[in-house]
Design a protein that fits this description.
Helices cover 0% and strands 51% of the residues. By secondary structure, the protein is mainly beta. Strands 2, 4, 5, 6, 9, 10 and 11 form a 7-stranded mixed beta sheet that branches. The N and C termini lie far apart (40 Å).
């Protein structure tokens, strides 16, 4: 059974940092590209970042470029999103996604003073 389990969300002040993790299981993680997608309260889904299967290529939505870093540890079957200089507009539920295999349950990130 394919599973994605996100963790690491929480409440942080503007300017703070969080590191999200996504533990993947039930498939050969190193064979698949992955994405982070978020959904802010009352809004639609927004793609945040993409990483290819070996981690050599990453891309980001403009609003997070220079602040967020996506990485992966294929030996540990884990995807990461390091989020720095967080802003209130980053408040959302963050999901790790593979478009063919599915989604996790999400982790809530709230940026507020």
């Amino acid at each position: 059974e394919v599973q994605f389990v996100e963790s690491g969300g929480g409440l942080v002040q503007p300017g703070g940092s969080l590191r999200l993790s996504c533990a993947a299981s039930g498939f050969t993680f190193s064979d698949y590209p992955m994405m982070w997608v978020r959904q802010a309260p009352g809004k639609g889904l927004e793609w945040v970042s993409f990483i290819n299967s070996n981690g050599a290529t990453t891309t980001y939505v403009n609003s997070v470029k220079g602040r967020f870093t996506c990485s992966r540890d294929n030996a540990e079957n884990t995807l990461y999103l390091q989020m720095n200089s967080l802003k209130p507009e980053d408040t959302a539920v963050y999901y790790c996604v593979n478009s063919a295999l599915g989604w996790g349950q999400g982790t809530q990130v709230t940026v507020s003073s």
